[in-house]
Amino acid sequence: MRNLTLTLLLAAMLTGCGYNDFQTLDEQSQAAWSEVQNQYQRRADLVPNLVATVKGEAKFEQDTLTQVIEARARATSITVTPETLNDPQAFERFQQAQAQLGGALSRLLAVSEAYPDLKSNQSFRDLRVQLEGTENRITVARNRYIQTVQAYNVKARSFPTNITARVFGYAPKPAFTATGAAASGQAPTVDFGNTAPAPQPAR
Amino acid sequence: MTFVSFFFGSRLGRGAGWPWLAALLLALCFMPSAQAQKLQPIPAPSMHVTDNTNTFDARQKSALEARLVNFEQATGSQVGILMIQTTAPEDIAAYANRVGNTWKIGRRAIGDGLVIIVAKRDRKVRIEVAKALEGAIPDLAAKEVIDEALTPAFRAGDYVGGLTAALDRLEARIRAEALPSPSPPGPDAAQGSIDGDGAQPTHSPLGFQWFDLAVFLFVAVPVLGGLLRRLLGRRIGAVLAAVLVGGLAFLFTWSVVAAGVATVLAWGLSMLSWSGLSPRAGSRAATGGVIAGGGFGNGFGNGFGGSPRGSSGGNTGFRSGGGGDFGGGGASGDW
How much is the ipTM here? Predict the structure, then answer.
């Protein structure tokens, strides 16, 4: 009898309850997603100022500039609401558009290294700092979203909470993939690896 | 898997093998997932100033430390300095964010923390700003501090001078922000009041309100138990009431613990209220059941719901407020 109670107790501790956890985790992942979108929006808002500043540089490569403008237009046209968040295809489109914008921006910043006037322009430098900060925030927000979705998906897929998930319609959520998209979505400073070591004084 | 262990456990109950099986299953369930990454470790924040590079001599370090202690006492905001050799393989922004969110420096309710991280061999520096201070120190301001105070001094090899100048600017900015003043009595006062406010519901990993269960039990069960007793008699009525309540609890919470507690309590309550009407031999056992049930429930409620605050204490020099939430704000620079 004591063995039975003990086993029951162990089983109980491992089982946990599912329904309320799904409520919490679902809400958390939606909040985390809002933060991701918020930061992407902030980046998109910075782009027009950046473009205007760069346009002041007369001889600037027009291709790079157009790519940024087009990528921004695409990225802002695709929004993912909490309802479409569960649609993996819409999610994938959103992710691709944002990755394109990230890539175009980091190219623009890399190209700008060749323009000394632009580099010393105070408003361009300020925009660069803000852009860099936004990229960092995007990374953090994405990581947090991935973590909440991971916690949610583990619940949604593992026994016995997957029964709860099926009964109440909590499908696994899509998360960011780390292939290509994430690599080009990183902070733009990464692209300056070849130019940065030059000004370092020898010690 | 747990159901399997339960069935095996009951069938092999008389043999010697089942505890091993249960232990194995338990070990499997609690086995931590292996992490293959080799990231730089994050030092424990035992002081405001953590120097893993031996850049400061004892006097310089204690001067910086005293300054930050004073600042924390005056304003409540926590500022940490971390000197390391390298952040590889991460870039300094990612590492700094990990440090911030591991230390969680900043007051618990306010989250006003800031970390200055210097990677000496990488020749990179970062000011990582918690969300609560992003208004006082926006990215541009942090970049300005780096460009005008830190990197010129660092280039000349004057680490203490650079950090002191940077702290002058950063502290002025934090003072200018209208943050709540520090709580005067004892370091525990602020944390205690906050724990009382909002920590309990969010900190329960079970996500289940024990209070609701108690209300449910003490209001609904006597009614149900009384009805069933009148229809079916004392023993059967109490058992049926217990089973029904336990089943309901399981349906609502999906927790065997909650269901078990509910079952025991419901049975005890049904028996107790009967024995109140006609005192008989079984009453003492029934009361015992209720008390045991209550103790069981409370024990679990407290054990699971308690806040993990103890881990932050222990050190006399510096204790993280545990409130800092670092969302990637701040700026980096190199020299």
Answer: 0.72
